[in-house]
Specification:
This protein has 11 helices and 5 strands, in the order E-H-E-H-H-E-H-E-H-H-E-H-H-H-H-H. It is of the alpha/beta class. Strands 2-3-1-4-5 form a 5-stranded parallel β-sheet, sandwiched between helices.
Length: about 375
């Protein structure tokens, strides 16, 4: 029996770039290999991708939606990430990583090995717009290899390069849980780090390929399949090595990238909090214009507190309103500010509900 092996193909790119289409077309080519009616035009034995005994897709979006349903989180994203959105996103990444590890374990160490595929292709479908996200997958493979002696795992990256305006156009056609706020895609485009092994500590993604999708529609063809196939083959010639101790430079780089991610997430949440507080300042002005400056100073104080204490991850909309309302009503934070029945209380409640409604509505 041939030695078992697994090929990891990581797809990265902006939402709407065509990653899922690429993944599904690879699966279609694999399942229809040798079929005369195959629309992709793949012939048997022409591509090694189609010769894997098994193909698995780990789709991060699907995992996240399952988590959102389990936690009764609205399937639609608001214009800004809430703490619930962030929690579901983080859990989806942990879950996806566990799915990868379990899939590798079943392949190499499963009790029914005699009936198992000898070659496995695992496609990871996510944005992976930051290099540190891709490194996490590579490190997981390294960690697995330390415990699975003799296993062979290759790692390659396919970057689906698509213009921002095309991604936004496709996103606008999506509805419900598939629709992502355009500003999130725009910010992602501004911070995306395409695969580039010449960058410091990026040698792990030396086997990468760019699929230039400049057209409005991604037409997957034989040439694209060949390009990806060649990349995966090259990666297999130099498989992943078991995990080694990180150098001090690598530790510093990883910490720097994680801090950058934290700052980007914090920035998005601070923007949402500021929008909410500005609504509440307006509510105070409607009731008593003389207190507008006081209300704005309260807004600034809350924003500054959030920035200094890095509490955005646990600062819900309700908590922000509680802080603002109690300050303006002159009551203790522990008290229920909504129990009163005065014009200011009613206006703050009304503005808060308007804010929630406006941010949950599709653009």
């Amino acid at each position: 029996m041939d030695q078992r092996r697994a090929s990891i193909l990581l797809l990265c790119g902006l939402p709407g770039s065509g990653k899922s289409s690429v993944a599904q077309n690879i699966v279609q080519a694999y399942s229809k290999c040798g079929d005369d009616d195959d629309s992709v035009g793949v012939k048997e034995d022409e591509f090694s991708l189609t010769q894997n005994d098994k193909v698995v897709i780990i789709e991060y979006d699907a995992i996240e939606q399952d988590i959102r349903q389990q936690q009764n989180i609205d399937g639609k994203y608001s214009s800004q990430f809430t703490s619930d959105d962030l929690d579901a996103w983080r859990k989806s990444r942990i879950t996806a990583l566990n799915v990868l590890k379990n899939t590798l374990s079943d392949h190499f160490c499963g009790s029914d090995n005699d009936n198992h595929a000898s070659s496995l292709l695992i496609i990871l479908d996510d944005n992976f717009h930051l290099r540190s996200m891709r490194r996490d997958i590579y490190r997981a493979c390294q960690e697995f290899l330390t415990a699975a002696s003799g296993a062979i795992i290759s790692f390659s990256v396919a970057y689906i390069k698509t213009p921002l305006h095309v991604c936004l156009e496709r996103n606008n056609l999506r509805r419900g849980k598939q629709h992502i706020p355009p500003d999130i895609i725009t910010r992602m485009d501004a911070t995306i780090e395409p695969p580039d092994d010449s960058k410091p500590y990026a040698s792990f993604e030396r086997f990468h390929v760019t699929i230039d999708n400049t057209a409005s529609d991604l037409k997957f063809n034989q040439e694209m399949l060949h390009t990806i196939d060649q990349c995966v083959n090259n990666a297999f010639q130099s498989p992943v090595e078991a995990k080694k101790e990180l150098t001090s430079e690598e530790i510093t780089q990883i910490q720097t990238e994680k801090e950058f991610q934290r700052q980007q997430t914090s920035k998005c949440q601070v923007q949402r909090i500021d929008l909410l507080l500005r609504r509440l300042v307006g509510a105070v002005g409607k009731v008593d214009k003389k207190r507008s400056k006081e209300a704005n100073d309260t807004r600034k104080a809350i924003i500054e507190k959030v920035r200094l204490e890095h509490t955005t991850g646990v600062t819900s909309d309700e908590n922000v309103v509680q802080q603002f309302a109690c300050k303006m009503l002159g009551i203790d934070l522990a008290e229920n500010w909504q129990s009163g029945n005065c014009p200011l209380t009613n206006e703050i409640q009304h503005s808060f509900q308007e804010f929630l409604s406006s941010t949950s509505r599709d653009d």
